[in-house]
Design goal:
two-stranded antiparallel sheet; two-stranded antiparallel ribbon; 4 strands; 50% helix; 12% strand; elongated; disordered C terminus; coiled coil
């Protein structure tokens, strides 16, 4: 993001601050941070992989998993289309959040049931 800030400063003909100051302000004054996201698996994928490893897959789980993967691919394609639409229309912004890794509603049978938000569009 620092590189984007420098590019923005160049476009506005401003002198960018050094990288240390940029990160200090971003992390402490705005209370935001940078990290590499974890690669969590959802309950459907975890159950499928566990039963596949144990070689006890059944037809229902296999069908449920295939539908899940199909929905995941459709969501990714929709996200791509939304990103392209935002690139073509400067009055549109696209915000994507992975709320599954942040919020949960309650614990049920030792599993978290997560609140899922696919996308938020701001016009």
């Amino acid at each position: 993001m620092y590189e984007l800030y420098v590019k923005w400063c160049e476009e506005k003909k401003l002198a960018p601050q050094n990288k240390w100051l940029y990160y200090h302000i971003f992390n402490f004054e705005f209370n935001l941070g940078f990290h590499a996201p974890k690669k969590d698996l959802c309950n459907v994928c975890t159950e499928y992989n566990t039963k596949k490893d144990e070689q006890i897959l059944n037809e229902d789980l296999n069908e449920k998993y295939n539908e899940h993967i199909k929905a995941k691919l459709e969501a990714r394609e929709e996200k791509k289309q939304d990103i392209e639409a935002c690139k073509n229309d400067p009055s549109t912004a696209l915000l994507c959040f992975d709320m599954q890794s942040v919020l949960f509603q309650h614990v049920h049978k030792h599993r978290f049931q997560y609140l899922t938000i696919k996308k938020v569009r701001c016009l």
